[in-house]
Amino acid sequence: xxxxxxxxxxxxxxxxxxxxxxxxxxxxxxxxxxxxxxxxxxxxxxxxxxxxxxxxxxxxxxxxxxxxxxxxxxxxxxxxxxxxxxxxxxxxxxxxxxxxxxxxxxxxxxxxxxxxxxxxxxxxxxxxxxxxxxxxxxxxxxxxxxxxxxxxxxxxxxxxxxxxxxxxxxxxxxxxxxxxxxxxxxxxxxxxxxxxxxxxxxxxxxxxxxxxxxxxxxxxxxxxxxxxxxxxxxxxxxxxxxxxxxxxxxxxxxxxxxxxxxxxxxxxxxxxxxxxxxxxxxxxxxxxxxxxxxxxxxxxxxxxxxxxxxxxxxxxxxxxxxxxxxxxxxx
Length: 331
What we know:
With 331 residues, this protein is α/β, with parallel strands linked by helices. The protein has helices spanning 2-29, 44-58, 72-85, 98-107, 134-147, 162-178, 195-207, 220-227, 255-266, 300-314; strands spanning 31-36, 62-67, 89-93, 112-116, 126-129, 152-157, 183-188, 212-215, 230-235, 246-252, 286-288. The strands form 2 sheets. Strands 7-6-8-9-10-11 form a 6-stranded mixed β-sheet, sandwiched between helices. Strand 1, helix 2 and strand 2 (62-67) form a beta-alpha-beta unit.
C-alpha cells in the first residue's frame, strides 16, 4: 500500500513538473510586440491589425501592447520608446511618417519592424505590408454594377494613395464588367477618420442619383441608410449594423501576415521582406463577406457570375490588375 502511494505521488509530481516546464517554455517562447496607430483601433484598417495581434496574444504567442491615435509628430517618439523597452517587434502604419519610421528601424537593427507602407522593405529589419484586397473589391464591384438601377455609383475614399486607389479601381472595373453603362462619382475626404465629412460627401452623390455607394470610409453607410440607397463595405463587415443597406463587403484578414511575422521573429529569421502577398485571397488574407441579409435580394444570375469569378481568382486563371493610379470620375 505504501509503495503504491509513493508511486502515485511520484507520478503526480512528474505530471506537475512537466506542466510547469511546458508553461515556462511557453512563456519563454513568447515575444513582445507593440503597435503604434495614428487612428483609433476602431478604424477599419487598423482594427484588422489589432484583431490579429490580439488573437495571437490570447493564444499565448505574444505579449501585446499598443498606442492609438498617435499624431504624426509623436509617431517617431512612440516608436523609439517601445524599441528602447526591448520589444521584439513593432507594428504600425508608416504612410504619413515614412522617413521617421525607417530612421527608427535603422537605429534599432535588432528589433523587427512590420509596417504598412507603399514603399519597399529596408534591410535589415524593416518589412512592409499592405491591404492587397483588390480581389474581393473587384467582386463587390460586380455586385454593385448588377444592383444599381440608376447606373450611377458613388465612391468615397480617404486619400488618393495607392492603398486606396487600387481598391477603388478594382471595384470600378468589377462594376463595369457586369454593367458597361455604369458611371462613377469619386470623392476623397482628406482624412482617415472623419465620418461626418464622409457622410456629407455621400449625401452629395446621392443628390446626383447615386443609388450604390462604395464605403471606403466610415460615415458613407450612414448616409446610404438615411437616404435608402445601398452601400458596399470595405475591409470590415458592417452588415450587422446596416442590415438593409450594406449589400456586400471586401474583407481584409491580417492573421496570415501577423502569424508569418511572429513565426519569423521566434525563429530569429526575420528580415526585410514584403508581406503584401499574405493579403491576397488564396492565403486567406482577404475574402468576400457572406451576403447575409441580401442572400435572397441579389439576383441568382449575378451571384453565379461572382462565384465564377471568385473561383477563377483562386485557381489563378483570372488576375485582378493592381492599378495604383488615382481613380477618375466618369460623370
